[in-house]
Amino acid sequence: MSDRKTKTICFTNNKGGSGKSTSCANLGYELAKAGKKVLLIDGDMQLNLSLSFFDEEKVLEMAECEANLYYAIRAKKDLLDYVVSTPYENLDLIPSSTLMSQIEYELFTMIQREYVLKKCLKSIYESEKYDYVLIDAPPTLGTWVINILCTADYVIVPVEASPWGLFGLANMFDFLNGMEEMTEAQIMGVLITKVDERKNYYKQTREILDAYEDIYVFDTFIHVDSSIEWAQDNSVPVAVYKKSTRSTKEYCELAKEVMNYGSR
Ligand SMILES: Nc1ncnc2c1ncn2[C@@H]1O[C@H](COP(=O)(O)OP(=O)(O)O)[C@@H](O)[C@H]1O
Ligand SMILES: [Mg+2]
Fold it and tell me: Whose C-alpha lies nearest to ligand 1, atom 23?
């Protein structure tokens, strides 16, 4: 782990639909609400993290201008100049672009191509403006995700409690282990998401994960909650959509676990 003041946490799982963007957005909101300064980076061409805070029109406007992550990475710019304020205190965002679909191609010819994002974040780290940088990764394991892992201190792996939720997870752990010499990123924990108590996949999933001795599974897990989708439909965090709903409380608990990390 780096000795930077700013801790960088990325959300990775090469399986799509596991809850990466949802967890990144809602954990980010809860950390900010708890008084931490948070910068969210939308690393996915799906723009889901940006859509969690801004309506579609605004997100497309940000994606179509040049003030987004794609252009910054392509031209190796200082990301401090690409920060956008969200409607919430302590919470900023670097928006993405659908052109992120081409980022692998852009990185291919760059020198030290695994460290471009880390270099673009240099002045953000030096400014010590943020307690946390949270990065939403796409469901791939290419050079761009390696860039994300190379600047991360911690990785949170959301896993859906479903029959196929764990599929490919061993490959992803192997991939992370294979990067040991390039990054100091450690797995902070696996977060079980979309738990439906009418089915017994939660128990199954936790049992299988508990068999990985060196992987921590967060005590907090996230239930299936339709308020999450309603909130996303309204471009707001679930806590803003419905304070009393189950997943609001769960993401608040997760934020406590993350803030206490290191003392457990
Ligand atoms: N706890 C939850 N309850 C209900 N729906 C959820 C929950 N978490 C995520 N979803 C939905 O599942 C889908 C995938 O989640 P998402 O966060 O986009 O996954 P990923 O970023 O890993 O692809 C989205 O449509 C989202 O609305
Ligand atoms: Mg996503």
Answer: 17
Separation of CA 149 and ligand 2 centre (Å): 16
**For the domain with range 7-256, which CATH number is right: 3.90.226.10, 3.40.50.300, 3.40.50.150, 3.50.30.10?**
3.40.50.300
Mutate which of 13, 15, 22, 160 for ligand 1 pocket (most atoms within 8 A of beta carbon): 22
CB 49 within 8 A of CB 148: no
pTM: 0.97
| Rounded Cα gap, residues 218 and 161, in angstroms | 13
* CB of residue 194 inside a 6 A radius of ligand 1: yes
52 lines ligand 1 (CB under 6 A): no
pLDDT in tens, 71-121: 999 999 999 999 999 999 999 999 999 999 999 999 999 999 999 999 999
Structure tokens at 111: 């020198």
Distance CA 133, CA 39 (A): 5
- 21 close to ligand 1 (CB < 6 Angstrom): yes
Q: How far apart are CA 232 and CA 129, in angstroms?
A: 28
CB-count burial class (<10 Å; 0-12, 13-18, 19+) for 259: middle
Q: Is 15's C-beta closer than 6 angstroms to any atom of ligand 1?
A: no
pLDDT tens for each residue of 138-171? 998 899 999 999 999 999 999 999 988 888 888 8
Regarding the beta carbon of 224 and ligand 1, being less than 6 Å apart is answered yes
Residue with tokens 């723009």, as numbered in its chain: 47
Going from N- to C-terminal start, the domains of the chain cover 7-256
